Amino acid sequence: MAYEEIIYDVSEQIATITLNRPDQLNSFTNRMLKEIIAAFDESDADDNVRAVIVTGSGRAFCAGADLSGGGETFAKGGSDVKAKTGVMRDGGGLVSLRIFESKKPVIGAINGAAVGVGVTMTLPMDIRLASTTSKFGFVFAKRGIVPEAASSWFLPRIVGISQATEWCFTGRMISAEDAKEARLVRSVHAPEDLLSAAREIAREIAENTAPVSVALSRQMLWRMLGADHPMQAHRVDSRAINSRGASDDAREGVMSFLEKRPADFPVKVSDGLPEVFPDWQDPQFS
Question: Hey, which of 68, 103, 135, 147 has its CA 20 to 30 A from 75?
Answer without folding.
Answer: 135
